[in-house]
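Please decode residue identities from the backbone states below.
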């Protein structure tokens, strides 16, 4: 047996509307649907659920969003800064590509990264 991928991630957020604006207006996720106290956004074919609730005191390590080039990581870093996002690290080159880490309004750590395609070909 094998799963086909990660279909969705659901986060508890303090303010659903504030988080929806961040993910939709800053990161470009598209509205998908709402059900009960959860808003669902499309992130390139995967879903992100934002549910009204208390965010955990300790968050998972981070979530990463892949882009097509190192230059795109740089452009995202500028875009995030212009929209008030706190950059936690980067953008910087790493052994397998380029990354920038930042936090969402509830403190979840996110990453935008580019992976060198030569590494994926091996």
């Amino acid at each position: 047996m094998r799963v086909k991928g990660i279909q969705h991630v659901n986060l508890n957020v303090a303010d659903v509307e504030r988080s929806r604006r961040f993910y939709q207006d800053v990161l470009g996720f598209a509205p998908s649907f709402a059900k009960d106290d959860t808003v669902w956004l499309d992130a390139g074919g995967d879903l992100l659920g934002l549910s009204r609730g208390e965010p955990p005191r300790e968050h998972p390590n981070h979530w990463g969003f892949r882009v097509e080039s190192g230059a795109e990581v740089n452009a995202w870093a500028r875009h995030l800064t212009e929209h008030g996002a706190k950059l936690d690290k980067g953008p910087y080159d790493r052994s397998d590509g380029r990354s920038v880490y930042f936090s969402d309004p509830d403190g979840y750590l996110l990453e935008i990264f580019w992976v060198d395609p030569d590494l994926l070909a091996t």
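Observation: Residues 70-82 form the longest helix (13 residues).
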